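Project channel, design review

CF: Before we commit to the Urochloa decumbens constructs, I'd like one complete example in the thread so the newer folks can see what an input/output pair looks like. Taking Interferon-related developmental regulator N-terminal domain-containing protein.
RD: sounds good, go ahead.
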Amino acid sequence: MLHGLVENKYATLLSQFNNSVKKGSTKEVFLASRAIGLLAITLGAGSSSHEIMESSHPQLCRILQAWSDASKMISALDCLAVITFVGATDLAETELSLKAMWDVIHPKSGSNVGTVRKPKPPVLAAAISAWTFLLTTIGSWRINIDSWKEPIAFLSTLLEAEDRAVRMAAGEALALCFELNLLDVFSCEDGDGNTGGTGGSKNKLFLDMQALKAKISGLASNLSAEAGGKGADKKNLTDQKDLFQRILDFVKYGECPEESIKIAGKRDVLRVSSWSELIQLNFLKRFLGKGFLKHVKENGLLQDIFDIKVDTTETLSSTDKKIFRSEEEKERALKLNKERRLAQARKNAAMLVE
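CF: and here is what came back for Interferon-related developmental regulator N-terminal domain-containing protein:
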């Protein structure tokens, strides 16, 4: 990694990149936006990345507010998500970026808005993905649950969108909302949360959220079993069915998604076991492309994000390796048994419905 060089030159590089975002062609905006995001990831969390966020945020938001061409908007959304993810130091800064993204997802009319614009499916999917990626960072902050009713309700309508990428992005966002308990009114009343309102309004909010849960579960069930019949669009159909089956397993049985990626050597593996981690993994994999594995191996930021464990078996004796692998086989068998139990539970639930 060129961390030392970047650290010494980042202010000069950032000025040039921001100038390209402001005045460049569509291709220049795409390349400069990616470069700004890569700059933040390379430097990692700290004052330099915070400066990058503060410097680039206004120009990226102007691109979103101007509703320029789709490619520019997608580039700006991805960059805004990354620099806020790395550089934001408090909830207020994160909320500014979340609001800018939400204004693309669900633009509203107003005195200063004029005609409401509707984002094209690729822009809408990118905006939801960026918004969800940033939402993974608010888990430790207490928020007003009442303020999430409208966004969750709107996202649930997108499960019926014609575009599959939009449906999948909305599904991931809603899965995260479930994981963060944003649909669970009483879980926040038990802690420091504030649902806002009196007993009557709280009861109404509870009933509204229960209705939303039922609607989302029903739509997820339909999408997990969508048929690819003659004339149907089969692009990403398998991915959609797998995603919504995971969402159903989480909502019904509390089963968290699990995924692993081999990093290097024989046993260095990156593992995730929650929706927040999976969403972060998928977003950063897409943003970094072929450079993802290199960053995971050498970048302290990504190693901290995913709590990467270094393989220690290379230094073990032959006997100790056998013991380690035996334990690993036991873990794999337990996981398979758990998957079988889930499959049986789904089968039994289907039989009861019939």
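RD: helpful, thanks. The longest strand covers residues 259-264.
CF: The longest helix spans residues 318-353.
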